[in-house]
């Protein structure tokens, strides 16, 4: 449980930092916290369904369609969270940068024991 809250804190901080670089409008920090929670829930429950449904497209694009699925997940979270506004291209770049940053920071700060 402790690791989940650390991951949530890392995600929230990354959402705020990345949004400043990509000129994504976030009205307050509460929206960033809700965005982190929404992304966590959507990645847990919706993303596996989308991945299974798009296996043929993912196969033909050699896995690059998974980037589009990540952007779709971000846009769905953006739709449900008031206070965050972004375009699809911003969502695509946001999801790529967020995934890479989360991977690196989770390896540094999360104890896997």
From TrEMBL:
Specify the domain of life of the species encoding this protein: Bacteria
Keywords assigned: Membrane, Transmembrane, Transmembrane helix
Task: Specify the protein name.
Answer: Putative membrane protein
Q: Does the keyword Endoplasmic reticulum apply?
A: no
The answer, when asked if Ribonucleoprotein is one of the entry's keywords, is: no
Bilayer-crossing regions: 5-22, 28-46, 53-73, 79-105
